[in-house]
TrEMBL record:
The species this protein was found in: Acidilutibacter cellobiosedens
Gene3D superfamilies (alphabetical): Aldolase class I, Antifreeze-like/N-acetylneuraminic acid synthase C-terminal domain
UniProt-listed PANTHER family: N-ACETYLNEURAMINATE SYNTHASE, SIALIC ACID SYNTHASE
Any Gene Ontology biological process: carbohydrate biosynthetic process
Alphabetical UniProt keywords: Transferase
Protein name according to UniProt: N-acetylneuraminate synthase
GO molecular function, a single term: N-acylneuraminate-9-phosphate synthase activity
Length: 334
């Protein structure tokens, strides 16, 4: 099964629907399976006295509240409808993360194929229950969470009868330091909860995605941007188009490297083995009628004759023709 790649546009449209469509183009042209946004009304998620998160202060040093910052990044619901229609025309899946009940209800009406729950909502149990009640498939991000908190979140969703849940491991830091990625936590959650798992990558390089795919991630999410130097909280931890295209190539190549798991020679190996494997050959010149003894045989290249593992079958047989030293013995010769 191919890894499902989600291009996380998030709020990197900077509140401009046309920039959002450009991000759709980037995701599609780079080969992503889906593009994800964040659908919200600022008043649903953030109080007017909330301060910026540390990474937001670093990426956007301007003095303003978190509410004021988020308000500028808000898109009207009608524009999300426009973006989804654009995605449908392009042929890429539209996904979005709701940050409140109003946004959730809108996305359900819009007909999104699944609901992505952000890491900030893992302990927001009432909201999780509401999402579960939609009956939609769910991807639950688990940044900042303990294993126990993830377990409780799953229990709440399952209590609605909705068990169509996948878990996404991530570290809520933009960008994430390599030593904080802890991809093995994805394996831990897969073993603990027996659900499909994936990885939301907030690092700056390619290594984390390669490692996640190698460890069985079924889906990968990565922030994209038109330009890292744009103003906004997430641009600096996002990939511009050229890097994102290479990122996807790395993922697809990793899939190819992993292969099917069936141990068998490749078609090219089948050709090569004829030249480099060994066959049973005459250890010296042998005359027709000779009864073959073990010391009359050696194993040498090429591998176009009888395999060395069948040597005992030849011992005691009579030669039907003369053989020169190093000449390959064939079945028709005995």
């Amino acid at each position: 099964m191919s890894v499902f790649i989600i291009a996380e546009a998030g709020v990197n449209h900077n509140g401009d629907v046309e920039l959002a469509k450009e991000l759709v183009d980037v995701a599609y042209n780079c080969g992503a399976d889906a593009i994800k946004f964040q659908t919200f009304k600022a008043y649903e998620s953030t109080g007017v006295f909330a301060k910026k998160a540390e990474y937001q202060k670093q990426n956007m040093p301007k003095e303003e509240s978190q509410f004021d910052m988020i308000k500028k990044l808000e898109l009207p619901f009608d524009e999300f409808r426009e973006i989804k229609e654009y995605c449908d025309r392009k042929g890429i899946i539209f996904i979005s993360t709701p940050d409140g009940i109003e946004s959730l209800n809108f996305l359900v009406r819009l007909g999104v194929p699944l609901i992505k729950i952000g890491s900030t909502e893992v302990t927001n149990l009432e909201f999780l229950k509401t999402v579960g009640n939609t009956g939609k498939p769910i991807i639950l991000s688990t940044g900042m969470s303990t294993l126990g908190e993830v377990e409780k979140a799953l229990e709440v969703i399952y209590s609605t009868g909705n068990r169509k849940v996948k878990i996404m491991h991530c570290t809520t830091d933009y960008p994430t330091n390599i030593e904080d990625v802890n991809i093995r936590a994805m394996i831990t959650m897969r073993a603990a909860f027996h659900v499909p798992t994936g990885f939301s990558d907030h690092t700056l390089g390619f290594e984390s995605a390669i490692a996640a795919v190698a460890l069985g991630a079924e889906f990968i999410e990565k922030h994209i941007t038109l330009n890292r130097n744009m103003e906004g909280p997430d641009h600096k931890a996002s990939m511009p188009p050229d890097e994102f295209k290479e990122y996807i190539i790395h993922i697809r190549n990793t899939e190819k490297l992993l292969g099917s798991g069936i141990k068998k020679p490749t078609e090219r190996e089948k050709i090569i083995m004829k030249d480099v494997r060994r066959s049973i050959v005459a250890a010296s010149d042998l005359k027709e009628g000779t009864i073959i003894k073990r010391d009359m045989l050696e194993f040498k290249r090429p591998g176009t004759g009888i395999k060395p593992e069948l040597v005992d079958i030849l011992v005691g047989r009579k030669l039907k023709r003369d053989l020169n030293k190093d000449e390959i013995i064939l079945w028709k010769d005995i």
